[in-house]
Amino acid sequence: MSLPVPIAQPGPRPGRRLHGRRQGHALKPRAGRLVAELLPRIAVPADGPLDARLLFGDDRPLALEIGFGKGEHLAFQAARAPGTGFIGCEPYLNGVAGLLAAVADQGLANVRIHMGDALDVLERLAPASLATAWLLHPDPWPKARHAKRRFVNPGPLDLLARALAPGGLFRIATDHPLYLRHVLVTMQQRRDFAWTARTPEDWTRVPQDWPDTRFARKARGLGHEIWRLEYRRR
C-alpha cells in the first residue's frame, strides 16, 4: 500500500463545536435508569480544574477518549488497566448510555464520563496529566465550511499537547481518506508531536491493545481501509 503524500497548506481555523446531534432513538428503560442514576455518580465535575486526585482520589495516570461512540473501546481499555483513570467525552446521549451499561456490567470503577465536548475537559485538565488520548473514527466533517469542527486543528491540538505528558501517546483511527490526509498535513506541521510509524504496517495492523471498534468493523465490512496513526508527545 502506498502512503498518501501530505501537501502542506493552511488549515481551517478551529471551531468550538466539534459535534453534531446529541440524541438519536429514545432510550430503553434500563439505559434511562443508568443515565439518571449512574451518570451523576461518575460524571466529570462541570466546573473547576481537573486532575487524577479530584477524579479518582489518587495520583494514577489518566487517559482520555475523545468521542467514545458506544464506549466499547474505552470499556476494553479500562478493564485491562484498572490502575489508570479513563475519561470519556461524548456528547451523544445514546453513546453515553452504552458506556454506562458497560461500566455497570463490568464493574468498572476507573471510568469518568463527560457528556459534552472534549475541549471542555482538555481546557481544565492539569498540564502533563494525560498518558494517552484516543480519537477513533471521528466525524470527518468533509464539507469545507465544517472543517473547523475537526478535532485535528491547531486550537484543540494545542490543548491536547498541554495536557499530554512528555512521551504520552495520541492515537487516531479513521477510514476516511480526506480525514487521513488532513491529519497527516496538520500533524506534520506540529513540532510537539512525533509520528511513531516507520513502515506502512505500523499504521494498518491491529495491535492487541488497540482493537477495532464496532464502527471499524462496519467500515471493514463495507470494504473500507482502516488507518491507524500514533503520535508521541515530544
Quick tags:
234 residues; 9 helices; alpha/beta; Rossmann fold; 18% strand
- The CATH superfamily appears as Vaccinia Virus protein VP39
Question: Going across the major beta sheet, what is the strand order?
Answer: 3-2-1-4-5-7-6
Total number of helices: 9
**Unreliable stretches:** 1-16
Topology of helices and strands:
Layout: H1 29-37, H2 39-42, H3 52-56, E1 62-66, H4 72-80, E2 85-89, H5 93-106, E3 111-114, H6 118-122, E4 130-136, H7 154-163, E5 164-174, H8 177-188, E6 193-195, H9 214-221, E7 227-233
Parallel strand pairs: 1-2, 1-4, 2-3, 4-5
Antiparallel strand pairs: 5-7, 6-7
Helix pairs in contact: 1-5, 4-5
Structure notes:
By secondary structure, this protein is of the alpha/beta class. It has a single domain (43-226), classed as Rossmann fold (3-Layer(aba) Sandwich), CATH 3.40.50. The chain has nine helices and seven strands. Strands 3-2-1-4-5-7-6 form a seven-stranded mixed sheet, sandwiched between helices. The relative contact order is 0.17. Residues 1-16 have low confidence and may be disordered.
